[in-house]
Amino acid sequence: MTGSWFALYPPVGSGRGAYPRMVRGLRGHGHCHLPAPAGRDGRFGEPAAARFTELADDLWGQLEKELGDGRAPDELVLFGFSMGALLATEMAVRLQRRGTGARALVVAGCPPPHLLAGRAVHTLPDAELVAALAAQGTVPPFVLDDPELRAMLLPVWRADCAAVATHPRRPVVLDCPVHALGGTEDSLAREADMAAWPRLGRPGSSLRMVPGGHAALLDRQDLMLAAVLAAADHPAEVRARW
Fold this sequence. Notes:
Blueprint lengths: L4 E5 L10 H7 L4 E3 L18 H17 L7 E6 L1 H16 L5 E5 L17 H11 L4 H4 L2 H19 L12 E6 L7 H4 L11 E5 L3 H6 L1 H13 L4 H4 L1
C-alpha cells in the first residue's frame, strides 16, 4: 500500500477525535487527514456551518491543502460514518470533477445522498434535540449528561443537523469503488437504501450488513478499519477481506 493515505469525516457533533481506534490502526499504513470543522477542534470561536455546501467548501479547502502538499488523490481512501459519509462522498465527487478521482470511498451508517429522508431535527427544542441524538447513539453519553458540555456543544449539534437537512440530495455516480457498511437494525440507514451504494461506484463496489443499529455500527471501528485498509490494498477484492 505504498503511498496510501486516508481522509476520515466525522458524524454529527464530532471532529478529529471521532475515530480513535481507526486512526491508531491506519497510521501504520499511511497519512491520516483528519479535517477540523468549525466549532470544534481548536475552532471553537467560529460558528459551525449550518448549510451543507458551506461545510463541504470548508472541508474541501482543507483537503486541497493536502493535495497541494503533493499527496496523490489516486492513493486516497475516503471514509465517513453517518454525516461523515455524506461529506466523504462530496469530497469524492469534487475530486472526480477535478479530474483526479480517489482510490476508493468507504461509507457507513448512511443512505446514499439521493435517498436521504427529510428530517428537520435541527428545528427541535434543545431537550428534544438532545433526546434525538441520544436515541441515535452517536454522541457519547458522558457528553450528553454533562450540562456544561451540552450547553457548549448544542450549537454545533444543531448546525450539523441543519447541514444534513440542507444536503442537495442529488444522485452521484463515482468512478472509484464504493464500499458500504450498514447495520441490520439501523432505522436511519435501512438495508434497502444501503443496497444502492454499490451501484454508485465502479465494478468491485460492495455492501456488508452487520447485526445492530446505528450506534452499534459506530462501535465497530475494527470493522470499519478493516474495510478502509482493504479498500486501500485491493479494492476489487474488498469483499473477501471483510
